[in-house]
Design goal:
mainly alpha; binds zinc ion
């Protein structure tokens, strides 16, 4: 089953965590983090938060960089796992 974030459209394979809120409504960790940032900006406690276009772009850029870093770490881990397999296979007595 492929879960897609209802907010940003990313599949669960492209994000760290996907939360099924209700059937058909999913939120990825990046969108939830974005919401947390926005909620922290509710400094006057009015419940109304205005996010400027620049702030939103910065938050989205942060989320993108985090996502790219996770993808890169995953690729490095996969390469290391493959290298371990090759080393282990070459050590096996023939
Ligand atoms: Zn999302």
């Amino acid at each position: 089953m492929i879960l897609i974030c209802t907010a940003c459209g990313k599949p669960h394979a492209d994000v760290y965590k996907m939360i099924m809120v209700t059937p058909g409504i999913n939120l990825c960790d990046e969108c939830i983090n974005l919401c947390v940032h926005i909620l922290h900006d509710d400094i006057d406690g009015s419940g109304l938060v205005t996010v400027t276009t620049g702030e939103l772009a910065k938050l989205q850029q942060d989320a993108l960089e985090l996502s790219l870093a996770r993808t890169w770490i995953g690729a490095v881990r996969n390469s290391m796992d493959r290298a371990d397999e090759v080393i282990t296979k070459n050590r096996e007595p023939s």
